[in-house]
Design brief:
Helix content is 33%, strand content 16%. The protein is built from 13 helices and 11 strands. Mean pLDDT is 91; it is low at 1-18.
Length: 446
């Protein structure tokens, strides 16, 4: 009897206080690490677990497929890869990037069934990652008893290029997210998590992604609640209206003999044959010039597609009007002045606002379906007049408010109003009037 008690206690302390822990999931064994929070709470970190096969070679621009089982013990104690960023210089960038991190406050393989927070990062569908240094779980591990999952997903052309047909339907970044949610359903119990208590959370482009899953039939049953922080399917940047044109522009930038007379299959062959670095460089050039793409969707963003694997199959406004959603409780919200972060680079911000002043048709959303240039200009002038009596470039505080409203606030509020007709919604606005949180004190008035 006493020998048995000693053995159990000895095994427990060896497990808890060793620097690593080994568990078995559906695909094989993984080795995580024991970590401490800022307040010295213990948690278990499993970093860079593959949730899909590397999307390279012939799998570039294709939906994710399952990872192969592995032999031996896979080291999941650190992050070494993030998805390729358009214009980014981070040395961790790699096309082989479909990994996730799991953090748990309980001994893995225990009988606990904790709620699960599944987080999708933002970054304009062009940048960002889910690694420990970006989104560590410390505060959750200190204050909440839950399991945290954070993922990488494909970005830029790798995740969102589309020919708007069956060759490259698009939305592979969203399909990566859904695949990771399916992985959670199959594996989270090994970390002390409850697959029936997954809350899907996202910020900015990640928030828009969450709202796509809320209205996608293919995501039904993968989460029980959702939190949207600063983005929805109705924010103008979250849906690309001219994806095929952009795909062909991308191909032409690589091979100047490539034209719209070429087929989608020829485009796929061309773009699968170039290096990831070359494709990344083209994407960086495409996003470097201020343009109207903010009102036609981020240059690489979700699209409407068809097919059995489709995420978005109809205009989101119409889907919301019909109430064709996964009816889960939601928290939806925003910050008071979302666009203030864009003035971190004051010169670039002024350049954008100068571009708008020089051509006010740019700020007229394509979804208004106003085609006549003179009418567009009149509407653009009226919009600017709401915010400033002068030029945007001379009144940057008003410019921040205009961009915050047009790209975030009005669309987020509309989304919350529409979806609340069909499910339970809690709305918030985060405001802080302080030294770093007030737009007038931050950039002043001209």
């Amino acid at each position: 009897k006493y020998c048995l008690i000693y053995f159990i206690l000895h095994t427990y302390f060896l497990f808890v206080f060793s620097e690593e822990s080994i568990i078995t999931i559906s695909y094989g064994q993984i080795k995580g690490r024991v970590a401490k929070t800022f307040k010295n709470s213990t948690f278990y970190a499993f970093q860079e677990i593959p949730y899909a096969a590397p999307p390279v070679g012939s799998l570039r621009f294709k939906p994710p497929i399952p990872v192969n089982n592995w032999d031996g013990i896979l080291d999941t104690t650190k992050n070494t890869k993030i998805c390729i960023q358009a214009g980014g210089t981070n040395t961790l960038q790699n096309e082989d990037c479909l990994y996730l991190n799991v953090y748990t406050p309980v001994i893995p393989d225990s009988d606990e069934k904790l709620p699960v927070l599944f987080f999708i990062h933002g970054g304009k569908f062009l940048s960002g990652d889910g690694i420990y240094t970006a989104y560590g779980p410390d505060f959750f591990m200190d204050t909440q008893k839950l399991v945290v999952v954070v993922i990488n997903y494909r970005l830029g052309p790798f995740g969102f290029l589309s020919t708007e047909d069956e060759v490259i339907p698009g939305n592979n970044g969203l399909k990566d997210q859904r695949f990771a949610l399916q992985w959670v359903q199959e594996n989270i119990q090994f970390f002390g998590g409850d697959p029936s208590q997954v809350t899907l959370v996202g910020q900015s482009a990640g928030s828009a992604s969450v709202s796509y899953h809320v209205q996608s039939k293919k995501s039904t049953g993968l989460f029980r609640a959702a939190i949207c922080e600063s983005g929805t399917v109705l924010t103008p940047w979250s849906y690309q209206r001219y994806a095929r044109d952009i795909a062909y522009q991308t191909a032409a930038a690589i091979d100047n003999s490539f034209t719209t007379n070429n087929t989608s299959q020829e485009l796929l062959t061309l773009l699968q044959g170039v290096s990831a670095k070359e494709l990344q460089a083209v994407a960086a050039d495409q996003i470097s010039v201020p343009s109207k793409h903010i009102n036609t969707g981020f240059i690489f963003a979700p699209v409407i597609e068809s097919g059995e694997d489709a995420v978005a199959t109809d205009l989101s406004y119409e889907v919301l009007e019909r109430g064709e959603i996964n009816k889960v409780p939601m928290i939806i919200g925003m910050n008071s002045e979302e666009a203030i972060t864009q003035v971190n680079s004051l010169g670039s911000f002024k350049k954008v606002m100068r571009t708008y002043d020089n051509d006010l048709t740019i700020i007229v959303n394509d979804d208004l379906h106003v085609d006549e240039a003179t009418t567009q200009l009149t509407i653009g002038e009226s919009i600017r007049k709401i915010y400033t009596d002068g030029l945007f470039q001379d009144d940057l505080a008003s410019s921040v408010r205009f961009i915050s409203d047009s790209r975030y606030s009005m669309n987020i509020i509309k989304y919350a109003q529409m979806i609340s007709n069909f499910t339970e919604v809690y709305f918030y606005q985060f405001s802080y009037d302080g030294e770093l949180g007030n737009v007038d004190s931050y950039i002043g008035r001209s």
